């Protein structure tokens, strides 16, 4: 099982100080490449859109092109169903490892964490990035977000790091590297611009929802 493999490889690092899980070998290259292909297929069908912060497009804050899961056409869902299923199966194992490390997240038992959407984002070099410092549950409408997650779908040589403000930490984009971190203000972060090529990520949240609800 993936979970046993995760524990044996000790892929959760420095959690007691940062509360940021980093899984470097969780998502295989072929899965990352297939998710990029999904984005490109969707882009050809013109169902991608400029990245938003809340309900607004503000390129001074966030400059990207996004594919929200709700916009993925049914034919593409079918074409990439194996890829999507594999990705979220592996992500679930990382989440399980996180909540076993921090058992407080397992309560109350009336509720469970679910993933109900995802967002694939593309950034062009020399300027595009999520420029603004932000955290993931900063509005009453999204207060149910508990943990954020993200996987870099390709490696970036220069720049493009995810910078965490209070941890004084910059994480370099490496294909397959997956992060999980708390959604609150303690983990205020931003994305930095990069020099060359395209940058792709997939991201979303583990959210509270009544037990039994399914994505």
Automatic annotation (TrEMBL):
Domain of life: Bacteria
Cofactor needs: L-ascorbate
Entry keyword Metal-binding: yes
InterPro entries: Oxoglu/Fe-dep_dioxygenase_dom, P4HA-like, Pro_4_hyd_alph, Pro_4_hyd_alph_FE2OG_OXY
Fe2OG dioxygenase domain mapped to chain residues: 114-208
Transmembrane segments: none
Gene Ontology molecular function: any one: oxidoreductase activity, acting on paired donors, with incorporation or reduction of molecular oxygen
Keywords from the UniProt entry: Dioxygenase, Iron, Metal-binding, Oxidoreductase, Vitamin C
Name of the featured protein: Fe2OG dioxygenase domain-containing protein
Organism: Lamprobacter modestohalophilus
């Amino acid at each position: 099982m993936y979970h046993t493999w995760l524990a044996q490889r000790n892929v959760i690092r420095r959690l007691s100080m940062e509360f940021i899980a980093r899984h470097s070998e969780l998502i295989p290259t072929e899965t990352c490449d297939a998710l990029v292909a999904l984005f490109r297929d969707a882009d050809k069908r013109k169902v991608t859109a400029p990245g938003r912060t809340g309900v607004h497009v503000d390129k001074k804050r966030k400059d990207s092109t996004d594919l929200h899961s709700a916009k993925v056409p049914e034919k593409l869902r079918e074409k990439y169903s194996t890829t999507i299923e594999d990705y979220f199966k592996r992500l679930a194992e990382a989440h399980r490892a996180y909540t076993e490390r921090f058992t407080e997240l397992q309560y109350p038992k009336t509720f469970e964490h679910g993933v109900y959407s995802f967002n694939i984002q593309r950034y062009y070099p020399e300027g595009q990035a999520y420029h603004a410092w932000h955290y993931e549950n900063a509005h009453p409408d999204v207060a149910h977000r508990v943990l954020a997650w993200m996987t870099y779908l390709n490696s970036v040589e220069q720049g493009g790091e995810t910078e965490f403000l209070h941890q004084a930490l910059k994480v370099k984009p490496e294909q397959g590297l997956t992060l999980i971190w708390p959604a609150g203000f303690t983990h205020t972060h931003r994305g930095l611009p990069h020099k060359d090529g395209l940058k792709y990520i997939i991201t979303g949240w583990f959210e509270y929802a009544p037990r039994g609800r399914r994505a």
